[in-house]
Amino acid sequence: MPSYMGFKRVFESVNLIHEGFRESLLTFYETLFLSLYFLSCTEQKLTYYKDDLVLTIISYKKYPKIYMIKHFDHITLVVKDVEAAKQFFGLLGFQEDKSVVIAGQQFSAYMGVDGIEAEHVTLVLANVSPRTEVQLLKYHHPAPLPDSAIGNLTKLGFNHVCFAVDNLEAELARLKVKGVQLRNEVMVFQNRKLVFLSGPEGITVELAEWSSVATTQSVL
Predict the structure, then answer these.
(1) Does the predicted TM-score (pTM) go above 0.85?
(2) What rounded mean pLDDT belongs to the chain?
(3) Which of 2, 24, 94, 122 is the most buried (most CB within 10 A)?
(4) Which positions ≥6 away from 193 have C-beta within 8 Å?
(5) pLDDT for the residue 68
(6) Do 164 and 141 belong together in one domain?
(7) Minimal CA–CA distance to 133: which of 159, 103, 160, 161?
């Protein structure tokens, strides 16, 4: 039986089957399958005629686009020094939006952390849409687990987070004055100038400037 995508391609170009059954195009079971598919569309008209086989007239304007996600929402970092983390992300344009303490059974169950009590700070990137957040979590209870390999980019799991900038050279000049440490030299790769920064609690933060020229040579 043809695939789901195969059916979709057929009916992007064919929206009327009439005057008998077109055996060269569809089988009985394929017609049935397609009928079920278009029942899920937002706009359609399905009429069945019973003869030796089932004939189908399909009229539709569009089929809905299906997305699993809409956009990046936030990343959450566990930190010991909230003020240092706020200062770092403040240099990147994030502003504090709210600060609350999370505790109680609901949060314990959601986080899977018994007896949780933590300061939860939401930082929002100013003047951008859609809304982009960095959330900071400072545990009062239980004590946070240290990660001695946090800066080792060969470790499994989280590697780094990357933010896009318009002018990487200008951003780095500004950040260096403020004491931000670079982990490497700027590299051009896959249409972007890239560089790693040392972030709060040893995490790796990357900056990227998109370019129309792609090379793999260092530019600085």
Answers:
(1) no
(2) 80
(3) 94
(4) 168, 186, 187, 208, 209, 211, 219
(5) 86
(6) no
(7) 161
